[in-house]
Hints:
Elements: H1 6-38, H2 44-64, H3 74-94, H4 108-119, H5 121-136, H6 141-161, H7 167-181, H8 188-207, H9 221-225, E1 232-238, E2 243-248, E3 268-274, E4 278-284, H10 301-305, E5 311-315, H11 321-328, E6 333-338, H12 341-350, E7 363-365, H13 368-374, E8 379-384, H14 405-413, E9 415-426, H15 433-447, E10 457-461, E11 465-471, H16 477-488, E12 493-496, H17 515-523, H18 529-535, H19 559-565, H20 571-575, H21 580-596, H22 606-638, H23 641-665, H24 673-696, H25 701-719, H26 722-731, H27 738-763, H28 765-785
Parallel strand pairs: 5-6, 5-8, 6-7, 8-9
Antiparallel strand pairs: 1-2, 2-3, 3-4, 9-11, 10-11, 10-12
Helix pairs in contact: 1-2, 1-3, 1-5, 1-6, 1-7, 2-5, 2-21, 2-27, 3-4, 3-5, 3-7, 3-8, 5-6, 6-23, 7-8, 14-15, 21-27, 22-23, 22-24, 22-25, 22-26, 22-27, 22-28, 23-25, 24-25, 24-28, 27-28
Amino acid sequence: MLGYNLSMQTKTIAISLSLISLSTLAFEIALLRVFSVSLWYHFGFMIISIAMLGIGTSGTMLYLFAGLNNIRLIPLYCMLTGLSILLSYMITNLIPFDPARAPWDRIQVLYILGYYVFLSLPFLITGLAVSTALSCLRQQAGLLYGADLLGAATGAVLALLLGYISPEKTILLLSLPALGSVLFFNNGRLILLSLLSIVAVIGLLYSTPSALKPRVSPYKSLALALKYPGAEHIKTLYSPYSQVDILKSPAVRFAPGLSFHFLKPLPEQIGIAVDAEDITAVTIPNSMEELEFIEYLPMSLPYWLLQHKEDILILEPRGGLEVLIGQYYGAKRLYRVDSNPLVIEAVKSITEGSQFDPYQQNTWTSLGRTWLSSVGKKFDLISLSPMGSLPKGGFGFSEDYRFTLDAFLQYLEHLKPDGILSITLFILPPPRVEFRILNTLYEAMSLTGIRDVARHIAAIRTWGTLTIMVKKSPLTERDIQQIREFSSSRGFDIVFYPGITEDETNIFVKIPNNQYFVAFSNLLNPKTRKTFIDSYIFDIAPVHDDNPFFHYFMKLKNIGEIYQTMGQKWQYFIEEGYLLPLVFLQVAFLSALVMLLPLCRLKRDSDRLLSGLVYFGLLGVGYMFVEIALFQRLLLPLENPSYTAATVISSMLLSSALGSLWLQKSRRLKSPSILLSIFLLLLLYSILLPRIINIMNPLPLGVRVFISLIFILPVGFLMGIPFPLGLLSIGSSSQVFVPWAWAVNGCLSVLSPILAIMIALSLGFKKVILLAAAAYLLGFFLLKKR
């Protein structure tokens, strides 16, 4: 059998499984980056589902077609994995799938099906290899499963390192480990084919045909901006965090809310686009005189109120306009904190040699909240503006720790006694973002002991923006007079200040029903706020760090009314991410089909075997619930999604691999009590996790990563044991049911990431961890019964 004794054969297969798992896990993470650029960030959920569905389908195929469950085919599976990584990417890159066209173009349904079919191939073939090895060598399940996890853990780290090169080159490189795994087998034909394929990949790396570049949706902001006459794409920068494009275009005109009273031309502006979507601009004035337009921006209002401009903090300055505003008004010390290091690099490359470099000094790359945790300083002004150059909504199922109740408590804590928190955002009807921000501010200020919150808040509205200001001390008569003078001289409408009357509002840019004044007056009135919040069409209740989905506004009971409000169009639901539950239902149907197909061949021991399959399904749910909860909660201290993914995924898989390998050597671990230990440990983790995060936040990033690794190691180690332990139990009944167990585990892992997010929306991630603990507890009783 392959020309080796059993020991050498097992080692060879273990190495090959490790290499192909490395390739496919890194390919999955690379596709997340590709989809963020070519489509939209939230379609990353689809990639996770495609991957796990492919793995689950492999188990069903092996169960139904016993001829595929042959250890001699493993070298072929390794070869096909490498080739399918290349071919699946190339084919799907040619499919004109575009979710923006889905509401009116029915053929998009076929295109998305094509994505599922072709992109699942590498994961299906990898699943065939792993499941075949576990079936045929089930007594070595701990070694083989551990090798699989170890390779996947390495793939998570490799994907992070390869993030500094273009996506197409990354995918070409990721095919090489899978192709190289064939060289460990004694199969001359496959070795020759593998070597030829490796040479071809190296050739493509040097030539990089344009056909390999990700096809970007024509409806993304970058594509639209480059269609303007005279538009020019300058260059592209890559990092594991994002892709940043530098461009010139008439669409890049960043002066949000600029007064109609300013009639002069703006200084030169160069655009920067993050992941081909979020466009902001770098302003390059030739002299201070060209910055006169700053006086006509609503973001200048706080500087009219400040009597001291000594310490100004700009969170997420991006193109640096707010830094220029601070410089223009004579701020003594400006502190800049941006979460995306590639944006800072892009801005510096644009402003090199200019006296108006917004990132010259006092610049940090970090999440604003994490940075604030590490400094004891207080500020005269904290400016936080979630804006690009083009108005757009946020994805409802994406986390945003900048606008949780915990975040606003932190901002208020770091204000000086007369300090101001200023937030400027685009107006996107119907109003929801601004009302949730105001509601969250009210709750945060109430928690700090402020009784009359309305005395601390003012807001103004332009033709396209809303600026909300919160002063730590009550607004004075001087402050109110300054707000009136600033607004009237520029044609800005006042929305709210303490003691305002309705006839002072909605003067210059009239809107129906004067809804902003009405909403602010009700939300800031203790007697009417609850009624307004409960009756409003959208959910505007504050969110917390445990459920940081700030941009999720859906009230399911109002879905019909929302549909009518949005002009009877489903585009809104797609743009803001509400397509995800539909994707969940689609994937749930496919997963159920994959899991239930083997029932047609089930003839004996049905009760015993079905209880075993439930056990493996619970493991899939429990493991993914823990991984998703840890990723989401550690995103705040680890700051960067790519670093967080690499840390959590690699540490989980590495520690689980060690647990699986240790099971192979230790008889003490071959006990159902391991699952009971996991249950108890997860209960402890649900209590400790928020406290650990608070301890980590002020520490250097390297220390935070190290603490995260140490924190994950114990639970990851134990969670690597139940799967091979269950395989030994099922294997003692019948080898043929091992692939079915693999299928059930994979399919439940498909549903779990989306399900975990949907649960966290209302219950929080602590409850997700507790549900994972419950899954392992049920698994304990099932395994003990067997």
